[in-house]
Amino acid sequence: MKYPEPNLILASRLSKISYVLSAVVLLVVVLMRKIKFDLGVDFSFLPAVNAVLNSIVSAFLLFAFYSIIRKDIRQHRLAIFAAMFFSALFLVCYVLYHITTVETSYCFDGPGKYIYYFFLITHIVLAGISLPFILLTFTKGFTYQVEAHRKMAKWVFPVWLYVAVTGPICFLMLQPCYV
Question: DSSP letter string over 102-122?
Fold first, then answer.
């Protein structure tokens, strides 16, 4: 398939935006643990929404992978756009929940606790580390730097999928602990 020429000027601008956005998101996520706002609204429904949003992201990522295997670039791009959109929506809901609601702790003992914390810690660490790489991989594909996109996507895709899948797993394991 013949791709348009890479748009390196746009790629440079989007890469800079990716770095700034990643830094801002990381800062907000760190600060939201220390800052709480009372907006007068009960946002206790948002963890379930977040789990659904992450599940939708997982489905779109798998569809994007399936599409690229079939060499359906158009479907692949649409699926990635959808995964990016639902990931952004997740992030907004996640921050809104955490700046307005006291955190819920895991309420069980035994081996389940270690499994939960394994998933939670790897989910959080990989989400934080992967964000700039997700944005840069998207930028490479969006600006038709196809080979660079492929090389990055081989590493970024499984991490992004892991983060999207473990989010709902953590929610389901923590769900009985919500008061």
Answer: PPPPP---SHHHHHHHHHHHH
